[in-house]
Amino acid sequence: MSYPVARSVCTHPGTTSGEVGPKTLHRPSLVEVNDPQPARRAALATADDRAPAGPGPDLRARVRVYEAELIAFRRDLHRHPELGRQEFRTTRLLRERLVRAGLEPRVLPGGTGMIVDIVPDGTPSGTPFLAFRADIDALPIEDAKTEAPYRSTLPGRAHACGHDVHTAVVLGTALVLAGAARTGELEQPVRLLFQPAEEVMPGGALDVIKADGMAGVGRIFAVHCDPKVQVGRIGLRVGAITSACDRLLLGLSGPGGHTARPHLTTDLVTAVARMAAELPAALARRMDPRWGVSLVFGRIAAGSAPNVIPQQAELEGTVRCLELAGWREAPEVLHELIGRIAETHRAKWELDYHRGVPPVVNEQESIAQLDAAMTARFAGRGPVVEDTEQSLGGEDFSWYLEHAPGALARLGVRGPHEKGVRDLHQGDFDVDERAIGVGVELFAALALGHGRV
Q: What is the dihedral of CA 447, 451, 452, 453, to 10 degrees?
């Protein structure tokens, strides 16, 4: 399989290059920044041989060897997006390239996603892995970038969340570190996780974990595209950086009857109305307010006639939470509160509580390593690390953090001259592709010890 090449526009922001940034008042779009003109470069099969031998001081040069290829790879994925657990083509392309680099990827049992280990010669048994994760699935959304040459070719599917960028970053990290292992520069084992189905709750991270993807992992990192952060920077936050969102369906039942004799039956309409009105406030008062627990109902259903007390009623909504402790405690508290209200009305009840994902809680030491590595590689060109806020969105990277400490960083993908923000999960979402090289260099630096604090 081959894919169109692209001129490398990944000279890192802040370095000297005639290809970075305009010198006039013209404000280019991301399509112009991500110039689609073909590059003059050697065949991909020889790229590994052309890489500089010393990935320490020459790390940036080694990353640049792969940048044009990685941009082309990202564009190919962007043109051919695949939904969760359907990423067969993406998995095949990744496997082919990793095998050519001398690695031995292990495809997950479901046929999509893979685990790749790079273990330096002489590594003592039991040495913990440093892991890097990429999510490879796309969204069921229409690609609205009508002028982009890498626009999705599949109706109703698009990489509108940046997973193609995440995949290119971890692929590039694998290629760089495979070379570092050959030259003896890599001193610790590394695991690359190419995960399917991040957009499918409760998330493809559980597929990876079930396949022993976290066995022996001592620390894990990931990046997520952030269109609010300028390319060349990352956003960091200690503690929760995403939120939890669970779904619940509450069913109430009773014998039903005539509205003239409510005392002889179970008045389900009143019961379900009380549940809708009282549960959110009661839950909020039972939980630590710092956890940010919020119960909101979006659907209520009961009855079909004005003079008939129904036998069934339903209430459906979401529970959102900013902190891991609250996420763990909310279901038990809800069961207690529902039971009390239902008992008052002599109603039978059943709660179908669907777990989503817990919040991603970044570990302090891992954040310090990201900060140190980013600063070591990119200092001297203005701010490269910035604080970031907690998102109300969910991210299944949180499941990995149940097994090892780690952190999720926000990777800046906003072009320096972009007027607005191309938000995630929107049809016009796009990135400044120089972010790929930044992400690869950051991850490679972590693996090579540049993040030690």
A: -160
- CB neighbour list of residue 124: distance below 8 Å, 6 or more residues apart: none
Q: Can you give the pTM of this predicted structure?
A: 0.84
Q: Could you give the strand order of the β-sheet that contains 348-354, starting from the edge strand earlier in sequence?
A: 294-302, 312-321, 244-253, 348-354
CB-count burial class (<10 Å; 0-12, 13-18, 19+) for 344: exposed
H or E stretch at 72: helix 59-79
Report the chain (453 residues): mean pLDDT per 10 consecutive residues.
42 42 46 55 46 65 97 98 98 98 98 98 97 98 95 97 98 98 96 97 95 98 97 97 95 96 94 97 95 95 96 96 94 97 96 94 97 92 91 93 98 89 91 97 95 67
**Domains, in order of start, for the chain:** 30-241+359-447 (3.40.630.10), 244-354 (3.30.70.360)
- Tokens representing 383 are 């701010």
- How many CB atoms lie under 10 A from the CB of residue 24? 5
* Assigned token pair, 265: 């039956």
- Per-residue tokens: 31: 């399509």
CB-based contacts of 127: which residues, under 8 Å, 6+ apart?
Answer: 188, 189
